[in-house]
Amino acid sequence: MTSATIDAGPRPTETARRHVPQWLISGVAAVAILGLWEALGLAKIASGNVPAPTQIVAKIFEDGWGFYEPNISQTLREAGQGWLWGNGIAITLALLCVLIPFAERVVMRIAIAAYALPIIAIGPILHIISPIGDMPMVALSALTCFFTTLIGAAVGLRSVDQSSMDLIRAYGGGSWSQLVKVRLRASLPSLFAGLRIAAPTALLGAIIGEYLGADNGMGVAMIASQQAHEVARTWGIAAVATVLAGIGYAITAFVGRQLTPWVPRSRP
User: Fold this and answer.
1) Rounded distance, CA 152 to CA 192, Å?
2) Which of 16, 44, 175, 229 is 20 to 30 A from 133 via CA?
């Protein structure tokens, strides 16, 4: 009889934990949180300023599509334009950093400075510079999603297989050939990681821009409901904005998965 330890395999509790789907754990946690929220809301915790989820949903249906449609359309239009401008400029600058390496330091310093600007501080300035139309909200939306996309694109363009780069160079290809044939494809996973974050932040930037001054939109509706002491409506607008941000994230993630089938997916 030796003193060697015999591995009896995983314990029953560990095996059971492995077989529990992640979606089931997340669902149970969400139901528990909603149940606790419902109980606290019905008990009128915080002087009734935290309504129950059922009260929020009931208010959303009571207001109806006629209330939400014009505000959602306005905010999504601003966020969509900001998303296109912010991401377009970010990807262009990332390509510039790869093709002209000495420009990277200047571009990154400017990007960090822009990212460090408080939105609350820059918002009124944008409204003064361009007080007409949706440009202040579009600019804030573009500013909020610019930095994450720039970093994701820049990191992705540089995360290439060196042997592939050497092969292109051995056949006489230059920086442009390396970019088109190797770098762009290699950058997609990292780029879409940034774009997934950019979708909700673009919506947030548009709402903050409306909050600082606009004629209509979800930010304006939230201010009006807050001033009218419509607590459930204020929470309802916030809930709808959260759903829209989640949809934007999910759509971007889906497109990213379709364009990068070679990237391994984590299993639940």
Assistant:
1) 8
2) 229
Is residue 194 within 8 Å of residue 111, measured between CB atoms?
no
Say if residue 16 is in the same domain as residue 136.
Answer: no
What distance in Å separates the CA atoms of residue 208 and residue 214, rounded to the nearest whole number?
Answer: 10
- The domain that holds 125 is classified in CATH as 1.10.3720.10
Q: Phi first, then psi: what are they for 214, rounded to 5°?
A: -165, 170
What's the number of domains the chain is made of?
A: 2
pLDDT in tens, 96-117: 988 888 888 899 998 888 888 8
- pLDDT per residue as tens digits for the range 81-97: 999 999 999 999 999 98
pLDDT of residue 150: 94
Question: For residue 2, is it within any domain?
Answer: no
Q: Are residues 35 and 77 in the same domain?
A: no
Is 218 part of a structural domain of the chain?
yes
User: Which residue type sits at 251?
Assistant: I
Same domain, 118 and 226: yes
Band of pLDDT at residue 34, cut at 50, 70 and 90: confident
Give percent above pLDDT 90 in the chain: 39
Surface-to-core class of residue 185, CB atoms within 10 Å of its CB (0-12 exposed, 13-18 middle, 19+ buried): middle
pLDDT tens-digit map of 153-209: 999 888 877 777 777 777 777 777 778 778 888 889 999 999 999 999 999 999 988
Q: What gap in Å lies between CA 143 and CA 24, rounded to an integer?
A: 37
Residue 251, token pair as written in the block: 């759509």
Can you tell me the distance from the alpha carbon of 268 to that of 257, in angstroms, rounded to the nearest whole number?
16
Domain that holds residue 29: 12-50
Tell me the C-alpha distance between 123 and 212, whole Å.
7
Our measurement of the distance from residue 25's CA atom to the centroid of its chain's CA atoms, rounded to an integer in Å, reads 24
pTM of the model: 0.82
